[in-house]
Amino acid sequence: MRRTMTGTALxxxxxxxxxxxxxxxxxxxxxxxxxxASQSPAPSAPAAKTVGATHEVPLEVGGTxxxxxxxxxxxxxxxxxxxxxxxxxxxxxxxxEQKVGYLVSxxxxxVTGPGGTLQQAPCVIKVDGKKVAESDGVTxxxxxxxxxx
Length: 149
Known about the structure:
The protein is an alpha+beta fold and about 150 residues long. The protein contains two helices and eight strands; from the N terminus they run H-E-E-H-E-E-E-E-E-E. It is about 15% helix and about 50% strand. The termini are far apart.
């Protein structure tokens, strides 16, 4: 019984400390007669989106047959696709994305390779016509990813 009472008292004390002991910030004596001002900051206009560079980005998965393909950056999805598969999109980078980068990636599933073995389907990412990432599906099984700046 003693432990239950101690536990209950501790929970009540913790709840009181977490919720605070008072109703807002104390007023200075000179402000006591004035009506309370809103504590929230004045609403400001939404920040304008700064559009920077625009890039054409095709994601490609090679091979034959069907496999699952996960992609992001140019739309996003995880679907069964008929190979060869290509998804092309336009990426507009904001000023912040130009500074830190914008990740695009494609991770293909497995296909039947030479000799009947399973291997990851090959993939390619291009940015404005230039090949920036490639995987043959054998030496690297991480798919393809690239950070556009």
